[in-house]
Write the C-alpha cells for this entry.
Amino acid sequence: MARYIQVLGTEAACGTSTTNGSNFGKAGLVRLINSGGTARLVTVETSAGVAIGTFTLAGNQEIYVRKGKTDEIFAANAAVLGVSVAFR
C-alpha cells in the first residue's frame, strides 16, 4: 500500500536535551528518522518540560509520532531528524 505525506515544514536535527526540544511548528504529527546507525532514545514532553514518554528509535529507521501541538520532542543525539507532516 502506498503511503503519502504532506510535508509541512523543514527537516531539522532534534534538540538533544529538555531545554532545546522542538514542537516542530506546533505540529500534531512529526516524522522522525534516525540518520545514524546507532539506536537513540527519543523523548516527548510537555512545553513545561514534563516527560510524557520515551522510546528507542533504531538506527536508520523512521517513525511517525502524534503529539499535542505544544508538546516537544528531543533525542539523545542530533542524528535524529524531524519534520512536521500530515498523512494524505
User: Anything to note?
Assistant: The chain has a mean pLDDT of 96. The first strand starts at residue 5 and ends at 7. The beta strands are 5-7, 12-13, 29-34, 40-45, 51-57, 62-66, 72-75, 80-87.
